[in-house]
Amino acid sequence: MKKPVPLLAFLLLGIFTRLQAQPIGEVDTVFKFIGPDHKIVVDAHDDPKVKGITCYVSRAKTGGIKGAVGLAEDRSEASIDCRQVGPLSFARPLPLQEEVFSERISLIFKKIRIVRMVDVARNTLVYLTYSDRVIEGSPQNSVAAVPVDGAIKIPLQP
Predict the structure, then answer these.
(1) Which residues of the chain are modeled with pLDDT < 50?
(2) What's the domain range around 138?
């Protein structure tokens, strides 16, 4: 007889799979004799609070021996484009600015981040990607904007 899986396990699984990037593709940029090649990877990130919005981020991924064992530090350059991919719905009211995704791109110190901002005057969701380090971040960034139909007002936290 099968044991029932608790509802909490399904909810947690849904949250964790939703917050992970979904790999879309990659291209090699530098051949490495030992270890994987340097690459540009493209991942899809669904906004966890705005159903119907997906952001596509391209970024460098370091190969070689360090890349193979997880010790490489990826470059700071990244590009983002966000699109409405289905009907919009909001899980809850949004803050004016919120980090929606982050992922380590080095062993300890460096992360790539996606931040959602609400442009209230234009009824638009603005997404920014950048990388930071514990000691020194990078000014390199990329931004994308998704206008929301005027019939839908973006719900904001009080």
Answers:
(1) 1-18
(2) 21-147
